[in-house]
Amino acid sequence: MMKRVPDWLNSSIWSSTPPPDNDRLNRYASKSTSTIAATAETTSSTSKSTATSAVESAIEPPVPVPPPIVVIQEPPKPEIRDPLSNNENGSSASSSAEEISRQAQFLQELSKKVINMGELRRLSSQGIPDGAGIRSTVWKLLLGYLPIDRGLWSSELAKKRSQYKQFKEELLMNPSEITRRLDQPVSFENEKSKSDCSGLLSRLEITHGEHPLSLGETSIWNQFFQDTEIIEQIDRDVKRTHPDMNFFSADAQFAKSNQEALKNILIVFAKLNPGIRYVQGMNEILAPLFYIFKNDPNEDYTAFAEADTFFCFVELLSGFRDHFCQQLDNSVVGIRSTITKLSLLLKEHDEELWRHLEVTTKVNPQFYAFRWITLLLTQEFNFADSLLIWDTLLSDPEGPQETLLRICCAMLIIVRRRLLAGDFTSNLKLLQNYPPTNISHLLYVANKLRTQPAHQIF
pTM of the prediction? Predict the structure, then answer.
């Protein structure tokens, strides 16, 4: 017997008129990507912010104070709470008081000599407040970059930042500069002795591996030319990162500096991880981390945002590493296996919707879920909302992947009525251009899928 629709899905919140389809260009719908126009992105971001504000009429969210370095104005960010409750619209003073109270909770926890990660995760799962650099510090703790002992922070940060500086010196150097530095100590002595004797300039001996035309596997020049293609791809993708945000894409020098930092991080990562190297879309995962760390009010943290972002990026990708390895696509740890898990999760919690999508209309989840999962939902929502989603993803002690799948499943359930009424074409368009939604409610539904097993919900 087919499972019936749960009562909590029949709330009045589902009866609101669905927003019009978003005309945002589809990115990463498959493994090949398309060039994104800045105008389309700007229009998408504006429409999403407007629609989100309409849905959140039951809750008046606090308005965060944007960091001074950011030129654009970020949309308001809602508190993560039960959106099905009967709370009336509160005053702005009440919202501000609640935001201040939450900031105080975080600051109190972060001021302890030894951080209680269980409590920090609990607070973070409900959304991290803006201001005071709280999200920057909390994300570094959740990703394991900062130790829980505050007394070790200075030494650990100094060590990591020094290590990243060394990575850049070794991996971002032109081969001719490497050769010059290797030969400099010896050649200086040889040049001096020979010039003293004959007054003639000597020619440096160039080994086979150091010759620009060498095709040997150990040739630094051969490796340099192989890396050129990847570096060019990274450069193109970085320039397309959030074209609607001045932080990343303005003509100002600080935006160009931010692009250069993203590029450095991705090149260093690609060279240190030859099994994965660089895959299109990594720039989209990197962007939120660098944005948060670069806007930290602590000037010391801001100065080393590039180094801190690199190590946090490595930690974040460690949980999704296999999704970017094409050789593992069909393995039990590959992206297709993860998409299958999402399909089974939907079948477990809403068999009627699962059957309509995959059996009746034959919408293969790979058509939409590939981008959702590999890019951690950064392309489905506006930038501010994606930060709230990441607060929840990073706070899960079991790792972000299971939470990510629950959120993806909740995304399907939230638009179930439109999907059940649609055919292949309309459903695929809807899921590849996900409509604006109440992020608080989305996270609430995702959490309900965790706390209430299917046989209890239905």
Answer: 0.71
